[in-house]
UniProtKB/TrEMBL annotation:
It is found in: Cytoplasm. This is DNA-directed RNA polymerase subunit Rpo1C. GO terms for molecular function: DNA binding; DNA-directed RNA polymerase activity. Pfam families: RNA_pol_Rpb1_5. The keyword Zinc-finger does not apply. Belongs to the RNA polymerase beta' chain family. DNA-dependent RNA polymerase (RNAP) catalyzes the transcription of DNA into RNA using the four ribonucleoside triphosphates as substrates. Forms part of the jaw domain.
Length: 399
């Protein structure tokens, strides 16, 4: 523990040198880390200077030049590797029963800001008193998994002669879902207003729905679907729950998402719950959380395909999609629609419609962006052309 004496034993002040050289250039986190290293180890002045030079070189090499067209660089950096992606990819989320859309379809979902992903998933972490017990995890899973009549039905028969529908329940599925016959009976009695719902005397797992009016053969399929889709228990949108062991705890992997209701369950650790539904995260947790999830999901898709893209390009895309306070798609109805330039909007898609609408509204184009500058033949405001130079040919004495 000689860290406190290290600086005093040298004939130079390391912290002062670090602040002087890096104070205005390096992020505070790098400065703090370097100070920590200097405090922990006895480093000579030459070695410190070498470390600072290396940091300065790294910062310079990774800094964006003034006037750099970062939008075009980001588009190329993400677009080119995306051409190497597989068109139709599914992978199993650690278990056989659930899959996740990956590859190009998932990337398109994200940049198009789809309201619901094709395979929504939610990862539920439990509170300390529940996370280490499989039995308690199963209990929570049974309570949140949406169970319909369909899930516990072995067979459903239409009896036109007796004007009834007979439902044979699956004994094993009832036990697996933690549902009893009485619960199914109550749900059917509540839903079937113009019918008498009773339990069969011959078979305790048979429920008979006796209708007052004759069953219409043309509507029987619709009626059957209505009965099978009745919800017995669980949270709407959570279609399946799988229990996984991760490290020293059990987590619940859910097919579907319903963040607002899941976060209210007492056993759920609401601070760690995670879903891949960006729009739902925006509605429940806010735009900053949606932006963070968008970056994470895009990076996950690229990394899963073995593609290396600098996270800063993805961050720029996420910033553009979320800068208005809502998640907007990269398209004519989203990011392009909020552009001020009529020419830029017209250059993207539906040219005539955009020009006619802009003319009808009397919009003015200030030719301030890259697209509109190219159209009218101006220098683009990027690179060296971004600098405005004023030259006065006369000296003070000549005036």
């Amino acid at each position: 523990m000689e860290s406190s004496n290290t600086l005093q034993s040298t004939d130079f002040n390391s912290f002062e040198i670090i602040e002087k050289r890096l104070g205005n250039e390096a992020p505070q986190s790098i400065i703090d880390e370097l100070k920590s290293i200097v405090s922990k180890y006895k480093i000579s002045k030459d070695k410190l200077e070498e470390m600072i030079n290396r940091i300065e070189r790294e910062i310079e090499e990774n800094s964006v030049e003034p006037g750099e067209p970062v939008g075009m660089v980001a588009a190329q950096s993400i677009g080119e590797p995306s051409t190497q992606m597989t068109l139709r990819t599914f992978h199993y989320a650690g278990v056989r029963e659930l899959n996740v859309t990956l590859g190009l379809p998932r990337l398109i979902e994200l940049v198009d800001a789809k309201k619901t992903p094709s395979t929504p998933l939610t990862y539920i972490y439990l509170k300390p008193e529940y996370r280490n017990s499989r039995e308690k995890a199963i209990e929570v899973a049974r309570r949140i998994e949406m169970t319909k009549v369909l899930n516990v039905t072995l067979r459903i028969d239409i009896d036109f002669f007796n004007n009834s529908i007979n439902i044979i329940l699956d004994r094993d599925m009832l036990e697996d879902k933690g549902v009893d016959v009485e619960e199914v009976l109550k749900v059917l009695q509540k839903a079937m207003k113009r019918a008498r719902v009773i339990q069969s005397e011959n078979n305790p797992y048979e429920i008979i729905i006796q209708f007052e009016e004759p069953i219409d053969p043309t509507k029987v399929e619709k009626l059957r679907e209505k009965i099978l889709n009745l919800r017995i228990k669980g949270i709407k949108g959570i279609n399946k729950v799988i229990i996984q062991r991760r490290g020293d705890e059990y987590i619940l992997v859910c097919e579907g998402s319903n963040l607002s209701e899941l976060m209210q369950i007492d056993e759920v650790d609401y601070k760690r719950i995670r879903t891949n539904n960006v729009k739902e995260v925006e509605e429940v947790l806010g735009i900053e959380a949606a932006r963070a999830l968008l970056i994470e999901e895009i990076m996950n898709v690229l990394e899963e395909q073995g593609l290396e893209v600098d996270i800063r390009h993805v961050m720029l895309v996420a910033d553009m999609m979320t800068r208005t306070g809502t998640v907007k798609q990269i398209g004519r109805h989203g990011v392009m629609a909020i552009k001020d330039s009529p020419l830029a909007k017209a250059a993207f898609e539906v040219t005539v419609k955009n020009l006619v609408n802009s003319a009808a509204r009397g919009e003015v184009d200030k030719i301030a962006g890259i697209t509109e500058s190219v159209i009218v033949g101006n220098y683009i405001p990027a690179g060296t052309a971004k600098v405005g130079l004023v030259f006065n040919p006369y000296t003070k004495s000549e005036r």
